[in-house]
Amino acid sequence: MPESQLFLIDGHALCYRSFYAIKGLTTSKGQATNAIYGFVNTLRKILRDYEPAYMAVCFDVAAKTRREEKYAEYKIQRPVMPDDLISQIPEIKKIVKTYNLPICERAGYEADDMIATIVSKFGNRDIEIVVVSDDKDMFQLVNENVRIFSARKDQLLNYRDIKRLIGIEPQYVPDLIGLAGDSTDNIPGVKGIGGVTARKLINAYGSIEDIYKHLDDIKPPRLRTILEEHRQDAIFSKGLALLESDAPLDLTLKDMTVGEADNKQLFEIFTGFEFRKFAEELAGHVQKKAELSVQHLKTAPDVEKAVSGLTQGSRFTFLLEVQSDEDAPLLANELYFMIKDSQVVFAVPRDLWPKLQGVFENTEVLKVTHNIKEISKRLSRQGIALPGEVFDTMLAGYLVSPAGGSDKIGTLAWNYLQSSISETDLLPRQVQAVQALYGPLSQDLKDKGLVDLLTKIEIPLSRVLARMEEEGVTFDEKLLKQLSVECEKKIAALTKDIFKMAGDEFNLNSPKQLSHILFEKLKLPVIKKTKTGASTDEGVLVRLAEQHELPASILEYRQYAKLKSTYLDALPKLINRETGRIHGVFNQVGTETGRLSSNNPNLQNIPVRTDLGRQIRKAVVPSQKGHWLIAADYSQIELRILAHLSQDETLMQAFKQGEDIHTYTAALIFDVTENQVTAAMRNSAKRVNFGIVYGMSAFGLAKDLNVPQGQAQEFIDKYFLRYPGVKTFMDNEIAHCEKRGYVMTLLNRRRYLPEIKSSNMAMRQFAQRQAINTPVQGSAADLIKLAMINIQKELDRRELATKMILTVHDELVFDAPEVECSDLIALVRDKMENAFRLSVPIKVSIKKGKNWLETEKVEE
């Protein structure tokens, strides 16, 4: 067994494989990196797992090859290399050179020929050669001393593996291609002979030359005739498939010796391409972590001395160590802090936190931290407030890069400092990172015009959300349990009916068993296939429900089962036994549009289209007797913002006149008067109105309306004919995004969409839809955030007992004493309708009730 290995990489093939295997990987600036990433990943794996003594990477050259000189149609049908791949090839070669590995390429020869030449030259040495390729052409090189490494299978294949894989001895691959041809390379082969016949002939007689020596023995006569008539085709095709082993290659084993890579340069390359995992592994080789001293403060005088140097304009950076005890999730064990320009981290136990109250409540001191909402909740439990200026690295990072994972300190430290900070690192190191992040994040915010968005919206909002989370939401637990029992009965009845329809019992939650019932037993048509068989997803069941009642019942069963597990059974478990309320979490950095999301529980996704879903809203009740729930909802706010952004005269006029916009639109696209608009027409117009906001195509609208695509396109065409300003706005937003790489809301919130320049049409179209939707939806998110801040300010100023408890997209919910309801309704209407001005009126619908479902509209 040879002691050393020589790995030969078919660079061209690996680039292609990586490009198509990894979809849509780009840098934040939109540079495609999928081929680079896949190539590097394979290269690193080989170096790490096999530690080869020698290695070389072979590439094709953009010049006419010797095969093309023999046969002009060789590979002629292959598509042109995509631009996104072309741009990555030089970068891949640069990386290979940085690893100090030789690149082999010669005009007139393919990478395959380079590899064949090296195998021929060094195949008899006391080394094992491993060819890195999944191309079957390369299998002809395999013998007892030459193996294949399949990047696709991630394994080494020997002679016996290849023989089993292709069904013939590896050396006969050119003969197989000579007979059966190769559609990929446009090698003709023998017309009338396929792979199965070719393998039988090769296994019986050997090479093409040997087959023709035994031509008289070949049966049936028809096959013999085909071979006779196409002898030259077979020999010529084999010649094209044979790898050339005489390329002019002056290369020694020493030249291919694997040496030390230039880790510093690799680190810079990987950082530039945003390959954080790769770069972090090199960080230890090229970076030295700054010295850090940690001092544990154990007495009140120690704390007072540590902060004595804080003066007006000082910066105080701090984080809390949060304990994992589920019974006390808002407590923390220690607080760590740093003072500007110091490299000392101070640790303060919880019992000494009150000694820092003066610092926290000093409005002249800038407090810098990460996730101020969660931290302020923990401090408030110790009676500590955080007035004055606060800088939150999480929120700042989110604003400058909404898709960048700003909730992780490690991600921000890497992106801005190229510093490897693990989330499991000790807090002192994380505090140091947060302190270092303040400068570059502040500058980035300033450069992008996002300072006001942070200081006037996101930071103040975090304070509001912290109070809402602390307040919590009161649920009628008895009603939830009653609904759960009713749901269980409904599920049992549906199950019984489904089994009766199916004529058999089966696991309703098993796609495989459901597939058997639908497509084998009931003989319903297969709508869509997946890797594991016929699909039974929601879209398929909706279509099948038009033909049979069982799919409709399955959909209903799934709906009830999900409601029961997600809400009816889960909500009671989330009720805090001390407060009797559910304290959900509002996430400020969970969406790229700026919309808030929620979890534990996700109250924004409670379905309202079904009766049972609405009943869950009925379980949301006031916190005490004598209180009411006040629900305030923006009326068609996204369409109003669309009117403002597009400045379409007709759309603006409709809102200014107080028209029902869906009826108004229906009258326009159906060419009828408003009093002739039917409920069906209005519903179609409503879907078109909101579909336009979300950049919906005719295909998507047709699916949504269940009409032919041509009719859906007609609706869209008529919409744009009536509202031409909207079409101009959409086209302009896409054009601006293509030029700048991002879109903006009315308050300058950015969303980066590098995919808008992707060569992948599906990704490009998705980005175009987001370029249309984000300015609208994001502006609506900014509007309600401003309203929340202003409402809370007024509640505090008037010292009202009313609490803001919920925000769901365009709706706010308040828990108010009866005596405050009248004033509250006027206050909320004013602050919501005047958060900022649009070209059209902003309207808010306000309802009042004893639960969230059964509310009645309050007239203006």
Q: What is the fold's blueprint, element by element?
A:
Layout: E1 4-10, H1 11-21, H2 34-50, E2 54-58, H3 66-70, H4 83-86, H5 89-98, E3 103-104, H6 111-122, E4 127-132, E5 146-150, E6 155-157, H7 159-166, H8 173-180, H9 195-205, H10 208-213, H11 221-229, H12 231-241, H13 263-272, H14 276-286, E7 293-296, H15 300-306, E8 315-322, E9 332-339, E10 344-349, H16 357-360, E11 366-369, H17 372-380, E12 390-392, H18 393-400, H19 409-417, H20 427-447, H21 451-471, E13 473-475, H22 477-502, H23 511-521, E14 529-530, E15 533-534, H24 538-544, H25 549-568, H26 570-574, E16 575-576, E17 581-582, E18 585-587, E19 597-599, H27 611-618, E20 620-621, E21 627-634, H28 637-646, H29 649-656, H30 661-669, H31 679-693, H32 698-705, H33 709-722, H34 724-740, E22 742-744, E23 750-752, H35 761-798, E24 803-808, E25 811-817, H36 821-833, E26 844-849, E27 855-857
Helix pairs in contact: 1-2, 2-5, 8-9, 8-12, 13-14, 17-21, 18-20, 19-20, 21-35, 22-25, 22-27, 24-25, 28-34, 28-35, 30-31, 31-32, 32-33, 33-34, 35-36
| Main sheet overview | 6 strands, mixed
Percent of residues in helical segments? 40-55%
Structural class based on helices, strands and sheet pairing: alpha/beta
Q: What is the gyration radius calculated from CA atoms?
A: 34 Å
Mean pLDDT reading:
89
* Shape category: globular
CATH homology-level superfamily of the largest domain: 5'-nuclease
Oligomer: single chain
CATH architecture of the largest domain: 3-Layer(aba) Sandwich
- CATH C-level class of the largest domain: Alpha Beta
Unreliable spans: 323-331
